[in-house]
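Here's my example:
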Amino acid sequence: MEIEAWVWWLIAAVGLAIPLVLTAMPEFGMFSVGAVAGAVVAALGGGIVAQVLVFVVVSVALIAVVRPLAARQGARTPRLATGIDALKGRQAVVVERVDGSGGRIKLAGEIWSARTLDAEQAFEPGEKVDVAEIDGATAVVM
């Protein structure tokens, strides 16, 4: 009993899909689709050269077209800021005088220790300040 070429291509497609699932590398999926295209050519009676050529062309075309599109889409997706990163750039209200050595602000509904970014600058209670960064448990404001 001899196994036909298109069956071997389908086995290769499944074999290439396994690393796709295990490693989440989309290139393996593109090679898997190329193997399915090779199976179609084999089922239609194409020779081994045509099968391999279709596999290579489809795989390379998918990598050349899909990868840049996916990379562009990933770059456009905004990152969700969490934790202290979400506090940077927010506005706060001074509760106790804030200068280069310390003070207190109300930030996101909580009282934080704070100091100014510029040691010469000072803010009085009631003034609004912007959080430049978080240094440990201290908000650095300006």
Observations:
- The chain is about 45% helix and 25% strand.
- The helical segments are 5-23, 26-43, 48-76.
- The chain has a mean pLDDT of 91.
